[in-house]
């Protein structure tokens, strides 16, 4: 029997076993909790027992996670469909050395980091000024990986901000760039155009709009722009002076890129020292991932829990529920990280995937989500594994009582999902309220919680640059492990191309310059209606 089949059999055999029963073992909570880099991962509230965990670890071993992990860290071209190495880890290991195509890439990484740090120090100290004095605001124009990472990080690390305010423009919807620029003073605003390729239509369109806005207000608009890209030619063609261009190599994937120049807005906001703490947290997680046995390896364990829930139990989605308002952009960030990485229908060799691809990832911070969609999580017909994140301590010492309430809510939700409420318990509650007969029966049934719904909890002391870096690196490596086990190339994204091509072809149809030959009737009819409505 293959390990995969063994796991399928283990799932069938344990499907009707309540997770709560596993807690008959007094060591369950300790045994199914792992700790690294100050993070505590409790996965005891899942239907994984010791035999299943052993089989999952055997699966990771059989699929070559350890070998592929080393191949990634040492610069092998594991992104086979793009013939590229995958080395975002090098961006956070500034003292390291990695050879790609016969060349140590680190001197260049360190030099760019030093240039970024010097530029940020100048801007933050007011030595690099706008045409109206010290830079007060930074606008990062980018999308996908050139937006979600730094936007999330700037919010996550707000308590460490002592530099200019950061704003983010991503959507090609003109409303986005309009509303952000409308409240800013161009003379004290620095615009960063962040695009790995410097061809992305949304980013380049917003960049042109920002340039027109700047040109209408200041004498030397170019001086208020910086760029982050792998293409020095395109940034030069856009007119950005090379001293304000920060490059990186194609072995940094867009959704893995905030550790380097794409993190420029974050470095401007928090300064290089805090930025390096952020890198240090990620590096610590990388080192843990590289060295810890699978039984204690956080990224491996998180990946295995995800695979168990998705591939073996058939739970198609996963809710990410940070009980941390400053992680409110984490679910959106993870949507790109996980779904762009592992949402693939063929394996590395082009063959159809014999199992499901990665799960749908979604979520919102608690406690807000409790008052919105948790109803379905608790009583809906589908099981949705939940991933809770919680800091032991907040950043607001005078609001400690609110943090305790937040923590109590977080623990209460995973407890409720585990335990549920039986019909007998619901009946007892409603009887005490005076209900009897058919009314009692009907009302009690509405108050039943099936429970037995799996969740994990990731606990960290406080959301600091280091712990935040470790959390994000944990997620990145978890995606890597899942991808390896599924046989997917987690580092390409061909699935986003078709829509881009069709949008380019549809623009002239909407303008009335093309009839859209070959397009389907629905699309043509919608385009005609848009033309009519726009007059
Ligand atoms: O369309 C998807 C994508 O290529 C992402 O992978 C990437 O993060 C995003 O677009 C932005 O790309 P760029 O940084 O090249 O503008």
Describe the protein's topology:
Blueprint: H1 3-14, H2 28-31, E1 33-36, E2 39-42, H3 50-62, H4 65-73, H5 88-91, E3 99-100, E4 103-104, H6 106-125, E5 129-130, E6 133-134, E7 137-141, H7 148-156, E8 165-169, H8 174-182, E9 189-194, H9 201-215, E10 225-229, H10 232-238, E11 245-247, H11 264-291, H12 298-312, E12 317-323, H13 330-342, E13 360-362, H14 374-379, E14 386-391, H15 400-419, H16 423-432, H17 437-446, E15 455-460, H18 465-486, H19 497-511, H20 521-534
Parallel strand pairs: 7-8, 7-9, 9-10, 10-11, 12-13, 12-14, 14-15
Antiparallel strand pairs: 1-2, 2-15, 3-4, 5-6
Helix pairs in contact: 1-3, 3-12, 6-11, 7-11, 11-18, 12-18, 13-18, 16-17, 19-20
The structure holds 6-O-phosphono-beta-D-fructofuranose.
6-O-phosphono-beta-D-fructofuranose (F6P) binds at residues 143-146, 195-197, 200, 203, 254-255, 340, 493, 496.
Rg over alpha carbons: 25 Å
Number of DSSP E strands:
15
The level of helicity is 40-55%
As a percent range, the share of strand residues is: 5-15%
What structural class do you assign from the helix and strand content? alpha/beta
Average per-residue pLDDT, rounded, comes to 97
What ligands are attached or bound here?
6-O-phosphono-beta-D-fructofuranose
CATH class call of the largest domain: Alpha Beta
Count of the separate structural domains: 3
Helical segment tally? 20
Q: What's the multimeric state?
A: single chain
Low-confidence stretches: none
The third-level CATH topology of the largest domain is Rossmann fold
The CATH superfamily of the largest domain turns out to be Glucose-6-phosphate isomerase like protein, domain 1
Rough shape? globular
How can the largest sheet be summarized? Answer: 6 strands, mixed
Strand order of the largest sheet: 1-2-15-14-12-13
What distance lies between the first and last C-alpha atoms, to the nearest angstrom? 66 Å
């Amino acid at each position: 029997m293959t390990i995969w089949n063994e796991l399928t059999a283990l799932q069938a055999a344990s499907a009707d076993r309540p997770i709560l029963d596993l807690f008959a073992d007094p060591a369950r909570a300790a045994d199914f909790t792992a700790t690294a880099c100050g993070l505590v991962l409790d996965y005891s509230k899942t239907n994984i027992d010791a035999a299943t965990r052993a089989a999952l670890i055997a699966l990771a071993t059989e699929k070559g996670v350890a070998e592929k992990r080393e191949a990634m860290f040492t610069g092998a071209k594991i992104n086979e469909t793009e013939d590229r190495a995958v080395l975002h880890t090098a961006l956070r290991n500034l003292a390291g050395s990695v050879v790609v195509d016969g060349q140590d890439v680190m001197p260049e990484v360190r030099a760019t980091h030093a240039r970024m740090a010097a530029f940020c120090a100048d801007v933050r100290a007011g030595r690099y000024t706008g045409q109206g004095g010290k830079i007060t605001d930074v606008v990062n124009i980018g999308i996908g990986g050139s937006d979600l990472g730094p936007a999330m990080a700037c919010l996550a690390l707000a308590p460490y901000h002592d530099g200019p305010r950061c704003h983010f423009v991503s959507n090609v919807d003109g409303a986005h760039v309009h509303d952000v620029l409308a409240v800013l003073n161009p003379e004290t605003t620095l615009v960063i155009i962040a695009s790995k390729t410097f061809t992305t239509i949304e980013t380049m369109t917003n960049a042109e709009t920002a340039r027109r806005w700047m040109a209408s207000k200041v004498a030397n608009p170019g001086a208020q722009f910086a760029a982050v890209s792998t293409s020095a030619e395109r940034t030069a063609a856009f007119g950005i002076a090379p001293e304000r261009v920060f490059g990186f190599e194609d072995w940094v994937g867009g959704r893995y890129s905030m550790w380097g120049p794409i993190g420029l807005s974050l470095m401007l906001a928090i300064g290089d020292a805090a930025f390096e703490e952020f890198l240090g947290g990620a590096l610590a997680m990388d080192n843990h991932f590289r060295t810890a046995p699978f039984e204690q390896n956080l990224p491996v364990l998180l990946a295995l829990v995800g695979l168990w829930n998705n591939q073996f139990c058939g739970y198609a989605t996963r809710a990410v529920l940070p009980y941390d308002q400053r992680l409110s952009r984490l679910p959106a960030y993870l949507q790109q990280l996980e779904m762009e990485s592992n949402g693939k229908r063929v394996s590395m060799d082009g063959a159809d995937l014999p199992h499901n691809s990665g799960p749908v990832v979604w979520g919102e911070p608690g406690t807000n989500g409790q008052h919105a969609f948790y109803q379905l999580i608790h009583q809906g017909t589908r099981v949705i594994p939940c991933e809770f994140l919680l800091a032991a301590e907040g950043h607001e010492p005078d609001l400690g009582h609110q943090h305790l309430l937040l923590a109590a809510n977080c623990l209460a939700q995973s407890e409720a999902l585990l335990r549920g409420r039986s019909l007998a318990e619901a009946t007892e509650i409603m009887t005490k309220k005076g209900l009897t007969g058919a009314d009692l029966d009907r009302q009690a049934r509405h108050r039943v919680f099936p429970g037995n719904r799996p969740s994990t909890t990731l606990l960290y002391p406080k959301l600091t640059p280091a712990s935040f870096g470790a959390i994000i690196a944990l997620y990145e490596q978890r995606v890597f492990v899942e991808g390896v086990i599924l046989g997917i190339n987690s580092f390409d994204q061909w699935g986003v191309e078709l829509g881009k091509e069709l949008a380019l072809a549809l623009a002239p149809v909407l303008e009335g310059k093309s009839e859209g030959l070959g397009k389907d009737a629905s699309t043509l009819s919608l385009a005609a209606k848009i033309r009519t409505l726009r007059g």
